[in-house]
Structure to design on (1116 residues):
């Protein structure tokens, strides 16, 4: 009885659109004329499309770029900020949390400004130091390929790595995630009882050993939580890309899956096709999350 | 203090018009930044002079975004009454009879039609019926930095007339630092990749004697020699070092504004903005020609939606007619650089006064006979993105011009074919 | 073929538009509800039978627009039967009555186009004082002026004020005084952007200390200011003012002001001002020139400096921003303008030394609201001070 209103709201605003979108993914529809049933054609088209797989690749680059660094830097800053006795701890915590509450749009515009070719701060600094200015936002070459260019080796596409432009966007992703990771890790660190460390000290453990055998395992619930959150969020990255590279980046190298979907839906009005991509993406995220729960949760130590 | 009184006055005016106005029209437009104040001025003047009609102007993002929002509005039933649509997007809505056929009003008011410049009028006529009035029409012009011309010992009043001349001048305007780095480029023929993608490249194909589609719009012709030749020439400008190779359009415009690039194609709708903001002497000229003299015609029009009531239709017609009348089209021209749309405006005293004040606005009007509308169809946005990607692949050296345009033509033909079967 | 036809039509249209040197036999004015036609004709410098000359007509339109009376001017030609033309001028009048607010004078009203004669009338009634709160009739002030009377190059100014209990704050004394002032002036506009004016001032002052004295002074003012044109990036304007006291009190005061404005890129600008003051002789306190108002050395006590010779230089760099803090692309879109300001004053008092130079630096923010400009500024000179100006 009491859940009826909530249930109704969820049905109307979540369940119904979801089902509608699912039905639409089997139709060809341009938002103006009547939808036409095409069966699995949209899904087949997506799986056969080179652009779709390229977008998938760029998305994976983004996820693999953002995830580890966000976690590592988050933990690093959390360890630094753990000390309650240090003067101004709360101010530092606030500063590190700032990027999280900054609007992604504003942050993307800020990054755009830093890495702009002509007036950007980054290039200005490079020039001041005597280097060549870099076209941060219009270089399509993968960074691994750039490395191998020195040896005149051409790598296969999948190994070329994210383009320089993508790296800038990854950097933005890391910058935005670190604050959140820091706060979660801080909470985790504060819940670890001092007795473990005291016991370890009595056993003559070094700081490194304490970190490796106590801190890290006991933080694994936080790590697991962050991993799942960041994975889901990173697969769905869109805002910064739309702002920083509205045309999809040099040679479409920043056209991640959601950006590709958006273009199909709201630039080309291939609604059915876009819905099919959305469900493919949903399936992928679901699969990865299930995988994480199945195989990684075993290694999580709950206190 | 004067202003506060004015605001109070406006509020009172607004409240009274809202309560007493018979008809309220919702008007969606795509005029941001520097064009918005001029548009708002026109709308408020219309409201002041038409006590029975009140127009509410709402900015809905760029042309592409307006299309999306309008499509969504039709689904939800929250449509505006009047909308500013890019002339290239009219077809998206006329295909489903979502725009009002203006023939009825035109037949009542025949002088309106005959006063519009013919080539502009054609852009709003689909299958013999007019669906909008041309409002902000622009053509692509060559912008150049007169100060840099002077510094290089060139005559600032003699912009290049042909591709050959342009290349020669661009070479003279390209300056290298002692360490070999290029500090000033002669030319940047940047091509946009999002809203109105491929816009700047189309005239190059036409000038080279080519076409993008056949006349029935069933086949893409960019794999033909004229288009490929244009692409080769374009690529050569980057190869020879007279154009910056690794800059996107935005960065290129930035560099142009900072005086690091001497020439580039830009829309006439930005002339006034450039004049107001650039720190150097701006020159505007017709695009240089090659085998043909031609430039691109683009821009927006004002359309009425077909689902509004007859009473509102009449008011909306009054509004769009007023917005494009001789006096207002000239006001719009002077304050933005979009071309005047009426023959009577070309012939007026006021346009000469405007030319006296802003001589750079004159070449755009002189380019009108050479301006060609862009080819359009329902899937044009996707097709242009494919073409844009093709030239980007050439710029970054992934494909040769022949390969790139051949692949693009194949993809586009596939889309065109699927359209036929729909 | 199509193109040929198009070009032909176009050439035809153009050839039509090349006017034969025919004359304008009359002018028809539309849209003026208040301003008299003859004022508009005078402003346009119209002469009967003048030829259709685009240069002159463009200048006429500029003159109408810069008169401050109209928000929009549109000109067109109508052919008459015998190859002559009627010039049709459509104007849109600005709102000409507006309320005024002045801390010293009180509240009032301004009429910028009295009876349509392009004459400005101002009237103030002073019936309260801010601190301490008290209500009393503090006098009145009325004036008439015109920059170009009836559109002619002559300007005039008439003002009469009778004000009581005006506050006077100087470093050494604080008191209230009563003032009776009459100003009459005649001027001539040399051209669109330069004018000269001669004034006669009569003042009758009574203070608590000295019972009462009168001032008779004659002054000369020269102003050169640029025509506002968005196409220009640089503006220089200067003014010079000299006043000489006669009869009972002999004194000479004067100011010179040079301003330079330069738009660097986009709307980002640089503005510099040099302001010089001379107080020579036994200057009565109401005529003495101090730093103050917009010519203030901020970050120091107001009216601390009343030296015989003073110079003030101000540099401002401003970056106009839109309401979303993007870089503004046109004056209409500007909402916030952060400014970096530096000032340096030279005050000649006693011996010449390093202490004669007074520097101060400040940060300002102009906020453009529908209710006018708010300009909070923070300055550091002798001490940190906050300023708020409203325009």
């Amino acid at each position: 009885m009491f859940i009826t209103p909530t249930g109704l709201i969820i049905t109307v605003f979540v369940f119904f659109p979801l089902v509608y979108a699912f039905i639409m993914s089997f139709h060809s529809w341009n938002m103006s004329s009547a939808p036409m049933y095409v069966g699995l054609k949209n899904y087949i088209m997506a799986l056969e499309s080179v652009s779709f797989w390229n977008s998938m690749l760029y998305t994976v680059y983004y996820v693999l770029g953002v995830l580890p660094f966000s976690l590592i830097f988050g933990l690093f800053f959390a360890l630094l900020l753990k000390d309650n006795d240090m003067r101004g701890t709360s101010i530092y915590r606030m500063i590190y949390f700032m990027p999280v509450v900054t609007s992604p749009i504003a942050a993307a515009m800020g990054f755009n400004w830093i890495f702009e070719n002509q007036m950007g701060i980054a290039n200005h600094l490079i020039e001041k130091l005597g280097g060549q200015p870099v076209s941060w936002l219009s270089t399509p070459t993968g960074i691994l390929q750039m490395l191998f260019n020195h040896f005149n080796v051409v790598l296969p596409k999948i190994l070329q790595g994210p383009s320089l432009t993508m790296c800038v966007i990854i950097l933005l992703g890391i910058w935005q995630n670190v604050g959140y990771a820091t706060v979660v890790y801080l909470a985790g660190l504060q819940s670890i009882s001092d007795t473990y460390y005291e016991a370890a000290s009595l056993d003559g453990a070094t700081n490194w050993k304490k970190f490796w055998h106590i801190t890290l395992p006991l933080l694994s619930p936080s790590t697991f939580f962050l991993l799942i959150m960041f994975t889901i969020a990173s697969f769905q990255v869109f805002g910064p890309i739309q702002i920083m590279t509205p045309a999809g980046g040099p040679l479409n190298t920043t056209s991640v899956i959601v950006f590709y979907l958006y273009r199909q839906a709201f630039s080309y009005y291939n609604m059915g096709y876009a819905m099919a991509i959305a469900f493919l993406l949903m399936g992928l995220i679901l699969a990865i999350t299930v995988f994480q729960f199945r195989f990684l949760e075993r290694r999580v130590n709950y206190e | 203090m004067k202003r506060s009184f004015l605001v109070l006055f406006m509020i009172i005016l607004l409240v009274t018009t809202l309560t007493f106005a018979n008809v309220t029209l919702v008007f969606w437009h795509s005029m941001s930044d520097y064009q918005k104040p001029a548009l708002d001025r026109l709308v408020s003047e219309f409201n002041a002079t038409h006590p029975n009609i009140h127009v509410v102007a709402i900015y809905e993002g760029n042309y592409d975004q307006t299309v999306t929002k309008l499509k969504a509005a039709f689904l939800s039933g929250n449509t505006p009454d009047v909308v500013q649509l890019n002339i290239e997007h009219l077809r998206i809505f006329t295909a489903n009879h979502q725009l009002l056929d203006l023939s009825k009003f035109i037949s009542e008011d025949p002088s309106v039609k005959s006063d519009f410049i013919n080539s502009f009028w054609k852009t709003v006529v689909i299958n013999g019926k007019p669906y909008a009035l041309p409002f902000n029409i622009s053509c692509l012009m060559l912008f150049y930095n007169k100060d840099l011309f002077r510094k290089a010992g060139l005559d600032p009043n003699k912009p290049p007339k042909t591709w050959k001349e342009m290349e020669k001048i661009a070479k003279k305007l390209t300056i290298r630092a002692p360490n070999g780095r290029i500090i000033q480029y002669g030319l940047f023929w940047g091509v946009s990749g999002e809203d109105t993608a491929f816009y700047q490249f189309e005239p190059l194909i036409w000038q080279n004697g080519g076409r993008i589609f056949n006349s029935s719009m069933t086949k893409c012709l960019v794999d033909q020699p004229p288009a490929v030749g244009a692409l080769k020439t374009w690529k050569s400008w980057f190869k020879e070092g007279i154009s910056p190779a690794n800059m996107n359009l935005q960065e290129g415009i930035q560099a142009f504004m900072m005086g690091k690039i001497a020439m580039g194609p830009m829309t006439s709708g930005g002339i006034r903005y450039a004049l107001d903001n650039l720190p150097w002497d701006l020159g505007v000229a017709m695009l240089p020609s090659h085998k043909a003299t031609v430039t691109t015609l683009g821009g927006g029009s004002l359309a009425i939606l077909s689902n509004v009531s007859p009473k509102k239709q009449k008011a909306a017609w009054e509004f769009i007619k007023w917005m494009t009348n001789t006096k207002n089209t000239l006001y719009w021209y002077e304050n933005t650089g979009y071309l005047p749309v009426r023959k009577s405006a070309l012939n007026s005293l006021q346009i000469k006064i405007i030319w006296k004040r802003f001589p750079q606005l004159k070449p755009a009007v002189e380019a009108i006979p050479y301006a060609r509308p862009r080819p359009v169809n329902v899937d044009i946005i996707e097709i242009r993105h494919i073409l844009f990607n093709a030239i980007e692949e050439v710029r970054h050296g992934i494909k040769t011009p022949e390969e790139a345009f051949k692949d693009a033509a194949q993809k586009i033909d596939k889309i065109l074919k699927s359209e036929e079967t729909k | 073929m199509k193109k040929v036809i198009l070009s032909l039509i176009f050439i035809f249209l153009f050839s039509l538009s090349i006017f034969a040197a025919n004359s304008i036999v009359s002018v028809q004015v539309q849209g003026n509800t208040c301003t008299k036609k003859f004022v508009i004709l005078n402003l346009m410098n119209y002469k009967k039978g003048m030829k259709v000359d685009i240069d002159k007509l463009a200048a006429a339109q500029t003159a109408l627009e810069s008169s401050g009376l109209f928000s929009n001017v549109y000109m067109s030609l109508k052919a008459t039967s015998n190859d002559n033309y009627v010039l049709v001028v459509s104007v849109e009048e600005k709102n000409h009555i507006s309320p005024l607010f002045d801390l010293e004078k009180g509240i009032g009203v301004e009429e910028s186009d009295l009876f349509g004669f392009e004459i400005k009338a101002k009237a103030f009634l002073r019936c309260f004082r801010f601190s301490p709160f008290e209500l009393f009739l503090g006098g009145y002030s009325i004036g008439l002026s015109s920059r170009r009377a009836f559109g002619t190059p002559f300007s005039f100014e008439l003002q009469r004020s009778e004000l009581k209990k005006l506050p006077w704050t100087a470093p050494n004394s604080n008191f209230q005084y009563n003032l009776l002032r009459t100003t009459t002036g005649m001027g001539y506009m040399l051209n669109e952007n330069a004018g000269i004016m001669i004034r006669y001032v009569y003042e009758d002052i009574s203070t608590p200390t000295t019972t009462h004295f009168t001032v008779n002074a004659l002054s000369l003012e020269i102003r050169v200011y640029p025509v506002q044109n968005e196409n220009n990036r640089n503006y220089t304007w200067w003014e010079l003012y000299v006043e000489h006291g006669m009869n009972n009190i002999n004194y000479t005061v004067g100011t010179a002001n040079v301003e330079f404005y330069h738009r660097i890129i986009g709307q980002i600008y640089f503005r510099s001002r040099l302001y010089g003051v001379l107080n020579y002789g036994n200057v009565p306190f109401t005529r003495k020139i101090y730093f103050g108002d917009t010519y203030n050395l901020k970050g120091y006590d107001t009216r601390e400096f009343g030296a015989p010779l003073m110079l003030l230089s101000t540099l401002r760099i401003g970056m106009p921003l839109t309401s979303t803090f993007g870089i503004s692309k046109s004056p209409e879109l500007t909402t916030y303008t952060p400014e970096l300001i530096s000032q340096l004053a030279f005050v000649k008092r006693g011996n010449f030394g390093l202490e004669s130079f007074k520097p101060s630096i400040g940060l300002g923010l102009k906020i453009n609201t529908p209710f006018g400009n708010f300009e909070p500024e923070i300055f550091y000179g002798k001490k940190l001070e906050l300023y708020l100006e409203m325009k």
In short: Chains C and A do not touch (no CB pair under 8 Å). Chain C has three domains: 2-93, 96-248, 290-391. Chain C has three helices and 21 strands. Residues 2-93 of chain C form a domain with the Ubiquitin-like (UB roll) fold (CATH 3.10.20.310).
